[in-house]
Amino acid sequence: MTVESILAKLSRVRREGNGWKALCPAHPDKNPSLSVRQADGKVLIHCHAGCSTEAILTVLRIEARDLFEEGPEWRIVAEYDYRDEKGNLLFQVVRFDPKDFRQRRPDGNGGWTWNLNGVRRVLYRLPEVLAVKSVLICEGEKDTHSKLPNRSPAKLTQSRCWNSLARKT
Ligand SMILES: [Zn+2]
User: What is the pTM assigned to this prediction?
Assistant: First the structure.
Protein backbone atom coordinates (compact mmCIF):
# COMPACT_ATOMS: atom_id res chain seq x y z
CA MET A 1 0.00 0.00 0.00
CA THR A 2 1.26 3.48 -0.74
CA VAL A 3 1.33 6.24 1.84
CA GLU A 4 -1.14 8.12 -0.36
CA SER A 5 -3.73 5.35 -0.11
CA ILE A 6 -3.33 5.28 3.66
CA LEU A 7 -3.63 9.07 3.91
CA ALA A 8 -6.78 8.84 1.77
CA LYS A 9 -8.43 6.90 4.61
CA LEU A 10 -7.67 9.66 7.13
CA SER A 11 -9.27 13.04 7.66
CA ARG A 12 -7.85 16.55 8.17
CA VAL A 13 -4.57 15.46 6.67
CA ARG A 14 -1.90 18.12 6.44
CA ARG A 15 1.77 18.14 5.71
CA GLU A 16 4.04 18.58 8.72
CA GLY A 17 7.81 18.37 8.62
CA ASN A 18 8.80 15.34 6.61
CA GLY A 19 5.46 13.63 7.21
CA TRP A 20 1.80 14.30 7.79
CA LYS A 21 -0.62 14.94 10.63
CA ALA A 22 -4.21 13.70 10.63
CA LEU A 23 -7.10 12.96 12.95
CA CYS A 24 -6.57 9.66 14.71
CA PRO A 25 -9.40 7.31 13.71
CA ALA A 26 -9.05 5.18 16.85
CA HIS A 27 -10.15 7.76 19.41
CA PRO A 28 -12.39 10.87 19.36
CA ASP A 29 -9.73 13.20 18.02
CA LYS A 30 -10.31 16.95 17.65
CA ASN A 31 -6.77 18.15 17.11
CA PRO A 32 -4.88 15.94 14.67
CA SER A 33 -2.77 13.71 16.87
CA LEU A 34 -1.82 11.05 14.35
CA SER A 35 1.62 11.29 12.79
CA VAL A 36 2.26 9.56 9.49
CA ARG A 37 5.63 9.35 7.85
CA GLN A 38 7.64 7.17 5.53
CA ALA A 39 10.87 5.42 6.45
CA ASP A 40 12.72 2.62 4.71
CA GLY A 41 9.81 1.67 2.46
CA LYS A 42 7.44 1.52 5.37
CA VAL A 43 4.66 3.80 6.53
CA LEU A 44 4.99 4.68 10.21
CA ILE A 45 1.91 5.77 12.11
CA HIS A 46 1.83 7.04 15.66
CA CYS A 47 -0.98 8.42 17.79
CA HIS A 48 0.28 10.98 20.30
CA ALA A 49 -2.77 10.30 22.47
CA GLY A 50 -1.55 6.76 22.97
CA CYS A 51 -3.64 4.56 20.66
CA SER A 52 -1.85 1.39 19.64
CA THR A 53 -0.87 0.90 16.02
CA GLU A 54 -2.99 -2.23 16.01
CA ALA A 55 -6.08 -0.28 17.10
CA ILE A 56 -5.54 2.29 14.36
CA LEU A 57 -5.05 -0.41 11.71
CA THR A 58 -8.22 -2.16 12.82
CA VAL A 59 -10.29 0.99 12.41
CA LEU A 60 -8.73 1.70 9.03
CA ARG A 61 -9.32 -1.94 8.05
CA ILE A 62 -5.77 -2.44 6.91
CA GLU A 63 -3.22 -5.04 7.82
CA ALA A 64 0.21 -4.51 9.31
CA ARG A 65 1.72 -5.75 6.07
CA ASP A 66 -0.10 -2.96 4.19
CA LEU A 67 2.26 -0.53 5.87
CA PHE A 68 5.04 -1.83 3.68
CA GLU A 69 5.14 0.17 0.48
CA GLU A 70 7.24 -2.33 -1.38
CA GLY A 71 6.39 -5.90 -2.24
CA PRO A 72 3.42 -7.28 -4.06
CA GLU A 73 0.04 -5.58 -4.08
CA TRP A 74 -2.40 -7.98 -2.47
CA ARG A 75 -5.54 -8.38 -4.45
CA ILE A 76 -8.65 -10.39 -3.56
CA VAL A 77 -9.44 -12.80 -6.38
CA ALA A 78 -12.11 -14.96 -4.74
CA GLU A 79 -14.38 -14.95 -1.69
CA TYR A 80 -15.84 -18.25 -0.52
CA ASP A 81 -18.89 -18.06 1.72
CA TYR A 82 -19.34 -20.55 4.52
CA ARG A 83 -22.97 -20.67 5.58
CA ASP A 84 -24.94 -22.46 8.25
CA GLU A 85 -27.88 -24.80 7.62
CA LYS A 86 -30.21 -21.85 7.09
CA GLY A 87 -27.90 -20.10 4.68
CA ASN A 88 -26.67 -17.43 7.10
CA LEU A 89 -23.11 -16.31 6.38
CA LEU A 90 -20.77 -17.49 9.14
CA PHE A 91 -17.40 -16.65 7.61
CA GLN A 92 -15.47 -16.37 4.38
CA VAL A 93 -12.24 -17.76 3.05
CA VAL A 94 -10.59 -15.10 0.92
CA ARG A 95 -8.12 -15.96 -1.78
CA PHE A 96 -5.50 -13.38 -2.68
CA ASP A 97 -3.17 -12.91 -5.60
CA PRO A 98 -0.25 -13.59 -5.07
CA LYS A 99 -1.70 -16.85 -3.75
CA ASP A 100 -2.60 -16.64 -0.10
CA PHE A 101 -5.66 -17.43 1.94
CA ARG A 102 -7.16 -15.55 4.85
CA GLN A 103 -10.34 -16.09 6.82
CA ARG A 104 -12.73 -13.42 7.96
CA ARG A 105 -16.14 -13.08 9.55
CA PRO A 106 -18.80 -10.36 9.34
CA ASP A 107 -18.29 -7.77 12.08
CA GLY A 108 -21.98 -6.92 12.23
CA ASN A 109 -21.39 -3.41 10.89
CA GLY A 110 -20.97 -4.17 7.23
CA GLY A 111 -17.25 -4.85 7.58
CA TRP A 112 -15.04 -7.78 8.40
CA THR A 113 -13.05 -9.12 11.31
CA TRP A 114 -10.01 -11.01 10.06
CA ASN A 115 -10.14 -13.99 12.38
CA LEU A 116 -12.55 -16.80 13.20
CA ASN A 117 -12.53 -16.46 16.98
CA GLY A 118 -15.70 -18.02 18.32
CA VAL A 119 -17.07 -18.81 14.87
CA ARG A 120 -18.65 -22.16 14.23
CA ARG A 121 -16.73 -24.10 11.55
CA VAL A 122 -18.92 -25.69 8.94
CA LEU A 123 -18.38 -27.61 5.74
CA TYR A 124 -18.18 -25.53 2.61
CA ARG A 125 -21.60 -25.21 0.92
CA LEU A 126 -23.23 -26.87 3.90
CA PRO A 127 -26.85 -26.10 2.90
CA GLU A 128 -26.27 -27.92 -0.40
CA VAL A 129 -24.44 -30.78 1.29
CA LEU A 130 -27.42 -31.34 3.58
CA ALA A 131 -29.76 -31.50 0.62
CA VAL A 132 -28.08 -34.40 -1.18
CA LYS A 133 -27.43 -38.06 -0.55
CA SER A 134 -23.83 -38.42 -1.64
CA VAL A 135 -20.90 -36.07 -1.31
CA LEU A 136 -17.67 -35.69 -3.22
CA ILE A 137 -14.80 -34.28 -1.19
CA CYS A 138 -12.47 -31.87 -2.96
CA GLU A 139 -9.23 -30.41 -1.78
CA GLY A 140 -10.12 -26.74 -2.01
CA GLU A 141 -13.03 -24.38 -2.52
CA LYS A 142 -11.94 -23.58 -6.04
CA ASP A 143 -12.21 -27.20 -7.14
CA THR A 144 -15.82 -27.40 -6.07
CA HIS A 145 -16.62 -24.53 -8.42
CA SER A 146 -14.29 -25.12 -11.34
CA LYS A 147 -13.95 -28.86 -11.58
CA LEU A 148 -17.49 -29.91 -10.85
CA PRO A 149 -20.46 -29.03 -13.01
CA ASN A 150 -23.23 -27.21 -11.19
CA ARG A 151 -25.56 -30.17 -11.45
CA SER A 152 -23.07 -32.50 -9.79
CA PRO A 153 -24.68 -34.51 -6.96
CA ALA A 154 -22.80 -32.64 -4.30
CA LYS A 155 -20.01 -30.22 -3.70
CA LEU A 156 -17.98 -29.99 -0.58
CA THR A 157 -14.55 -29.03 0.42
CA GLN A 158 -12.39 -29.46 3.42
CA SER A 159 -11.02 -26.06 3.89
CA ARG A 160 -7.78 -25.23 5.59
CA CYS A 161 -9.58 -24.14 8.73
CA TRP A 162 -11.55 -27.36 8.77
CA ASN A 163 -8.34 -29.33 8.43
CA SER A 164 -6.59 -27.39 11.14
CA LEU A 165 -9.59 -27.77 13.41
CA ALA A 166 -9.59 -31.50 12.79
CA ARG A 167 -5.90 -31.69 13.56
CA LYS A 168 -6.36 -29.86 16.83
CA THR A 169 -9.07 -32.19 18.10
ZN1 LIG B 1 -5.52 7.89 18.80
Answer: 0.48
